[in-house]
Amino acid sequence: MREEWWERPGLEIVDGRLLVAGRDAEALARTHGTPVFAFDLVRVSEQALSLQAALEATGHPFKVRYALKAQREPAVLAALRALGAPGSAESVGIDVCSPGEVLHALEHGWRADEISYTGTNVSDRDFDVLLEHGVHMNLDLLTQVHRYGRRNPGGGIGLRVNPRAGAKWGGEGETLYSAEKATKFGIYREQLPEALVIAAQHSLTIDTVHFHVGDGFLADGLPAFAKAVEEVAEFVRFLVDAGCPIAEVNAGGGLGVPQREGDVALDVGAYAQILADAFGPIAGPDVVLACEPGDFLLKESAVLLAEVVTVEERLGTWFAGLDAGFNVAPEHFIYGAPFEIVLAREADGPGTHRYTVSGNINEGDDLWGEDVPLPPVREGDILAILHVGTYSQSQQMWHCLRPPAAAVHFTGRA
After folding, report:
1. Which of 1, 116, 269, 300 is exposed most, by the fewest CB atoms within 10 A?
2. Contacts for 146-155 with beta carbons within 8 Å, 24 or more apart?
3. pLDDT tens per residue across span 134-158
4. CATH class assigned to 11-40+300-410
5. pLDDT at residue 311 above 90?
6. What residues have CB less than 8 Å from 189, skipping those under 6 apart?
7. In DSSP terms, which residues pair with 187 in a beta bridge?
8. Residue 17 in contact with residue 24, Cβ under 8 Å?
9. Integer CA distances (angstroms), 257 to 92, 209, 390, in order
10. Does domain 42-298 have CATH number 1.10.3210.10?
């Protein structure tokens, strides 16, 4: 038996068979039907605790919030809520980006003071809901500062800033959030003086600096992340020198997990220390170091199980067709992120055959993977698509009137 790069507690191979949360993956598929997401919620707490410990080691107060857009399933939120009482160090707050997410977080047990709003192109209708519930807002456009100030003069706000640099999966490079090219996100350094003028017009207090420069970055992305943080430090220094009582610096999300063989996991201790070294000397020892990951907390918590309904050779290419299409897990099709695909009954078997793994949506690009190495696959087999805890189930759709996948959640490992 060979060990696979993705194996860990909660996702293991025993006697050749794939286990999820200690349970046989194929048996789960037969019992619950396919397609079905199987969640190991223990993995959520493991990831949250590791990140909290890294931030605590810096000596700064800290806050970990979870990006709700990544996964909103009630059972998952219950597991996060159970990590700590509101206000405790173990508690995981919530990052939201729409009024609907504010209401969803409140409905599932979070207090308004645990919720941070970071959105873009906020409408007056959005402000109606956001201001009613009193969540803290990070504003990322000058016009938003104006419009917020007119609606809530004297309030406290965060500024989402854009340092024109970022870190992504695979290392250094531009991201859709922060790059040399103009993006729709964040206030630029040249705009800070105007932001201060607008805030003063409405007696607003700028108490938070928020930045989102990451896109699934791992260990090899830390140098690029550190460069972006150096740029953000100049924003913070400018605001502190202008008299803004910066109480929190929020690094947003973008922390990744390994998705392919050879990926080196993010060193969360190094990540936390980069934040402390950059912002502690400027904002002081009491500045809260905050982050709002989605992928890091939850991506590894789930697999998608689907049945092989077609095995056929076509013009020299072997296809393995599944009873699940991109409507149930669109992340790969939206972002191009790779999926690791495993044969549940022979998870450690040699990949002697190559398959194009296709879905059941009537679109030509409904492909889970091409040239995927697997043991010989038979119709009726169960394939497991790994690392789909985020940006998959939460983005499901009814394209072709194919229904979303079911889900099962395990709070303990068998």
Report:
1. 1
2. 146/198, 146/202, 147/122, 148/122, 148/202, 148/204, 149/198, 149/199, 149/201, 149/202, 149/203, 149/204, 150/202, 151/127, 153/202, 153/203, 153/204, 154/202, 154/203, 154/204, 154/205, 155/204, 155/205
3. 999 999 999 999 999 999 999 999 9
4. mainly beta
5. yes
6. 161, 163, 231, 234, 235, 238
7. 161
8. yes
9. 19, 25, 11
10. no
For the chain, the domains span 11-40+300-410, 42-298
Report how far residue 19's alpha carbon sits from residue 8's, in angstroms, rounded to the nearest whole number.
10
120, 184, 228 from 225: Cα distances, Å: 22, 20, 5
User: What is the residue whose two structure tokens read 């609907």?
Assistant: 100
Q: CA–CA separation, 318 vs 271, rounded Å?
A: 43
